[in-house]
């Protein structure tokens, strides 16, 4: 039960944060991750007490909501109320909607979610970022979302470490003679001068 709960919690958190990022990209705003995840946890806990299934942010419905003009929490609450009404008694009315229409809406919203601008610029994008994105995409489709996120985070961490290391190496200078970069005493400078290149100091920039 603990393993299943952690898996569902991880998937729900990832889905909600992804939905929030998509909404931010459309509305040019900034979501509050803590509020999003805490609210989702409280809602799923209460739903579990009544035998309900856990839920998370729905990217497609959020995009439709935002494109329809929804900009406040009221739009999300109204969406939940309408779904509740459909579940409790208005399902017969919703059943008359052709599935082909629903499929068309899903396809349209799904294509709108794709960042086409980034795909057009993918040739000029950093190769490391493209490799990470492709790896996460393949693992998500073929294996598991949580595994894909974990692999992506590890790859991004190694990339960050490499970039920091490259920056440090670029700011590293080898010194065999006294210079302005070093704050040496007269005795230390004399020893370094007499060594005639046999003593090497590494100067690390503080920038």
Question: Secondary-structure map with pairings?
Answer:
Elements: H1 2-27, H2 33-49, H3 59-67, H4 73-94, H5 99-113, H6 116-120, H7 127-142, H8 145-170, E1 172-175, H9 186-194, E2 201-204
Antiparallel strand pairs: 1-2
Task: Write a brief structural summary.
This protein has helices spanning 2-27, 33-49, 59-67, 73-94, 99-113, 116-120, 127-142, 145-170, 186-194; strands at 172-175, 201-204. Strands 1-2 form a two-stranded antiparallel sheet.
Overview of this protein structure:
The structure is a single chain. With 207 residues, this protein is mainly alpha-helical. Helices cover 70% and strands 4% of the residues. Strands 1-2 form a two-stranded antiparallel sheet.
Low-confidence stretches: none
The biggest beta sheet reads:
2 strands, antiparallel
Instruction: Please tell me the total number of domains.
Output: 3
Sequence of strands across the biggest β-sheet: 1-2
Task: For this entry, give a set of tags.
207 residues, mainly alpha, 3 domains, two-stranded antiparallel ribbon, 2 strands, 4% strand
